Amino acid sequence: MSMRIRTSAFTALTVAALAAGTVLTAPAAGAAPKAAAPKLLSASQLPPHPTSSWTAGRTTEGFPEALGLCVSTEGVPSYDYRHREFRTDVDASAVQLTVVADTAALAKGLAKHYDDLIRTCADRIEKASPDVAAEVRDYGKLPVEEGARVRGLHTETSQGANDVALMSVGRDGRTVTVVKWGQLGDFGDAPVAAFKKTTTTAVNKLY
Fold it and tell me: What is the DSSP letter of 97?
């Protein structure tokens, strides 16, 4: 999905995004100390764009609005969120989020929660906006660290605006990462193989 400010299915729906899934248990007192800050992707590690290079923003504390359509902090304890946004000179953009939980068990539950939100995102979009058709595709699991999964989301408005996004959730121990790539287009425009490579790199690079 393009994170530029424009009239599109994703932009119009971001503010109406609804979180779903089980509320996670808050960290217990006396939990393990914080781990070292995980490392994020660089611009060169994103799927290559055919006409433009990627530019990386600064690593920023907090939860990115760019993930607000399908993934949110609702029902999730307050964790250490860090993110980095990426842009091209055209319509493609991306973002990576990292979350450090207090235990590996909490991180496992958080990764499942985020993946469930992505898996059910199309249903919530269509319920919130009847003029938008949405579809999620499962591109499978990746054998990296504690695992990762890649899914795709396509939306089309009744006026014909198309957006496609690839999203992944991966985990390394107590740390969860969510990666999102998006642009105008449909599933045929999505670089699935390259995004899987990006996701594998993102999880491996955390520590």
Answer: E
